[in-house]
Amino acid sequence: MHDNWLETIGVGIETRNIVAGLTYHVPASPNHRLGIHVGAPVNASCRCDGTHHRRVQSDGDIDIVPAGLDGEWQDDADCTILRLWVSPGLVRQAAEDLEIDPAKVVVLPQFQRRDPRIEHIAHAMATGLSPDMPSDRLYFESLAKALAIQLVQGASSLRADAVRQTLSPVQKRRLRDFIETNLDQDLSLGDLAKVAAISVSHLKVLFRRTFGMPPHQYVIQRRVERARTLLHQGTMPLSRIALEAGFAHQSHMAQSMKRILGVTPAALARMRK
């Protein structure tokens, strides 16, 4: 299910174990690609865009290969690469929502780029694919939009006079009411954008500015609060409360509640007695 989500959202991610000494040819792709080095440093060789790079590749170093370019990579020791792809369409949409002319956004080849935000987004995506840390479509959409924005901002600059717009009071109220009414549904950024009558990428930027957090984080907090209310009522088993609050299952609710409230559902239930 996650793979289908990622394809429709416009991103992909995988962990690749690289064998020392082998030359890996990466053919040209219609998508922009990122490779993030994970772990101990290695001596690396790269041929891309007509140039040859030799360097010590360290944890967090990022290679960005724009759509249409191929390349060859070789490392002198076994290593791990977190590989991502991002569709040009997603990048164009992010540029438009940042009020940047997409025609002026050119993703150039970059090697050993250091970008803690991209690194954080990539690891969050990889963690979200783990069956032990279930994440929904809204979570991945938010991360995908954030990644596209980082690529845009790395290739262009926002206008110095750009207005720091937020959601209108009406949009904020409609979104808040919609989320509360549909907490038990599989919400997506597209659903929220329709309620606010704006594009998905624009919603992501304005939602964070207005609510102080990304949409997926806000939804999780509201689900935790819904679960806490149902727990205090004491009329449902924990498994039913998890579904009513919109969690994938009981352990997902427990993980979220522990992270946000610092206590587990079982502990809250004992306090009620």
Describe this structure in words.
It is a single chain. With 273 residues, this protein is of the alpha+beta class. The protein has helices spanning 2-9, 88-97, 116-128, 137-155, 169-181, 189-196, 200-211, 215-233, 238-244, 250-261, 265-272; strands at residues 11-18, 24-26, 32-38, 42-48, 51-57, 62-65, 71-75, 79-86, 110-113. Strand 4 (42-48) and strand 5 form a beta hairpin. The radius of gyration is 21 Å and the shape is globular. 34% of the residues are buried. The model is unreliable at 156-163 (pLDDT under 50).
Give a quick summary of the entry.
It contains eleven helices and nine strands. The chain has helices at 2-9, 88-97, 116-128, 137-155, 169-181, 189-196, 200-211, 215-233, 238-244, 250-261, 265-272, and strands at residues 11-18, 24-26, 32-38, 42-48, 51-57, 62-65, 71-75, 79-86, 110-113.
